[in-house]
Amino acid sequence: MRNCQQLSSIVYCCLITTDDNISFVGKGTHCFRQNYANLTPVASFFGMDNAEELTELAQDDYKFYICEYLRDSKHRFLLQECYETALIKLEKFSYIKFCANPIYQAVIQLNNVYTNVKWQLQVTYTSTNEIIDNNIYIVDSVDLITNQQITMICSPFIIDIYFISNNILVHYAIDLPKIDGETLIGNYF
């Protein structure tokens, strides 16, 4: 391993090449916790209506991590930092959607239960200007989703969730719990 970089107090990322005698499936950048548990990418999201920043949701055996990348060239992103999230990883989820912006991170985890799909939306807020919110806001539901096609649109004040159930488009409009959202948005834009 070479070009190792500590990206947070607990996450390290290293470049693994074909010259390294390490039994990883793929070569390239791999991230680890301090005890070298491998972080596996689960979902990615291009935020802020551009393709210059990429945010990735990664996991180890127990927790979720957010890794942030910046565009380096037309086809390449460089890892800037990885950090642990407060989002709770469900056991045996079969599908995941993720979004992140300067205000919050959100994840939908789906779990097959016979013909129904149990899904859970979790939202955590980014700490800003000494405002710290350690809460995890959760919405649970069980729906008949026939093909696991689910979409999430993350706006500053609302998360829209769409999926198909029995050939009908179902829409959940979930208002975010922050009353002072305008203040938070004003800090970023």
The secondary-structure class comes to mainly beta
| Separation, N- and C-terminal Cα atoms | 39 Å
Low-confidence stretches: 181-189
Task: Tell me the helix content.
Answer: under 10%
Query: pLDDT average, as an integer?
Result: 75
Q: Compute the CA-based radius of gyration.
A: 18 Å
Keywords:
disordered C terminus, single chain, 189 residues, four-stranded antiparallel sheet, 1 helix, mainly beta
Tell me about this structure.
The structure is a single chain. 4% of the residues lie in helices and 55% in strands. With 189 residues, the chain is mainly beta. The protein has a domain at 90-179. The chain has a four-stranded antiparallel beta sheet, with no helix packed on it. A four-stranded antiparallel beta sheet has the order 8-9-10-11, with no helix packed on it. A hairpin with a 4-residue loop joins strand 1 (2-6) and strand 2. The model is unreliable at 181-189 (pLDDT under 50).
Summary, kept brief:
The protein is mainly β. It has a domain at 90-179. Helices cover 4% and strands 55% of the residues.
Task: Give a topology summary.
Layout: E1 2-6, E2 11-16, E3 28-33, E4 40-46, E5 53-59, E6 64-73, E7 76-84, E8 95-100, E9 104-113, E10 116-125, E11 137-143, E12 150-154, E13 158-165, E14 168-175, H1 181-188
Antiparallel strand pairs: 1-2, 2-3, 4-5, 5-6, 6-7, 8-9, 9-10, 10-11, 12-13, 13-14
